Structures are given as structure tokens and as C-alpha cells.
Amino acid sequence: MILKKVTLDNKSDLEFIEKLYIESFPRSERRPILEMHHLMEDESRFNMFLLETKENTKVGFVTYWNLGDFIFIDHFAISSEQRSGGYGQKAVQELIKQTSLPLIGEIELPTVSDLARRRVKFYEKQGFQIWDLPYQQPPYEEGFDPIPMLTITYRDLNFPTNFETVRNTIYSEVYKKKYK
Predict the structure, then answer these.
(1) What is the per-residue pLDDT across 107-142, written as a single tens digit (0 to 9) for each?
(2) Residue 52 sits in a domain of what CATH number?
(3) What's the structural domain count of the chain?
(4) For labelling alongside 27, which of 21, 145, 147, 179 has CA 20 to 30 A away?
């Protein structure tokens, strides 16, 4: 699995990612495309990678923030045509291999849907710890409510002791919000 850095100049890769982003995440769980473009241009901590096979087949994408002490996985998706082919596992393993920093992400509560339950199992199989601590994804835009989520971690972030500090960093740096 290849993680190919995407910039605004990579039109074909960007179009693939934008389409998959809109298909994979409900409006309440994604930022506007134009805002994502601004982040790619102006925010050095924000990274977007196309997930591609060695045969150059586009299978998905991941966006993440390097927040110094840890990496926050913002969005991760595999195209519906490529799911169940082991690409998600390969992509996560490649991301783990490329950094020594702890990884943190957020996932839907397993009570939301069968897909959410499968997602929890997927991350557990990859070695992530699932934390049932008070966390809500702040809205990316006005007019949407916060979404109850679980946090997931790979490598030690000293949870639950450091949970509030990590959560507050994500809220202020990624979402530009304060924890309420």
C-alpha cells in the first residue's frame, strides 16, 4: 500500500478523494471541500494522502493532523468497490509504520449501526485501543450538533490521565472550538 501525498495540484487524485469523502461521510461529519483546500494550502500540520496499490489503483484516502505529540486521524475511507479486500488493514499498517507518534481517532458509537460495530472490531484487530470516555465530535459547521463518538488510540497517550488534554488539543487545533 502506498500513501501518496496529495496537493491541490494533483487534480485527478483530489477529485477521487473529494468524491469518496462526500460518499463516505454524512454532511455533519465533514468539513466543506473549500475549507479542506484552504487547510491543504495554509496548514502545514494537515496532511492528505491517497491510498494506492502498487499497481496504481486508487483505493481510498486518509487525512490527518500532526499535532506534535500525536497524530489525529481526521478522515479515513476505502472506496466501496475496494472494501473487504484488505486495503483498510494495509493502509492502517502503512500509516503506523510511517510514524512513531501515537495515533488517535474518533469513531461512531457501536450502537449507531452494524457498520459502526464492524468499524470498532476493525480498529481493535489493528491493535487500537477503544476508549469509552466523554467525547463528542464538534460540528465542522454552524447548524450541526456535536456527535457522540469513541476515541481510539494506537501507542500510549497515557489515557485516561491525559485524555482531557488530548481532547482539548483536538478541539482547539482541528475544530477551532473549546470543549463544553
Answers:
(1) 999 888 888 898 899 999 999 999 989 899 998 888
(2) 3.40.630.30
(3) 1
(4) 179
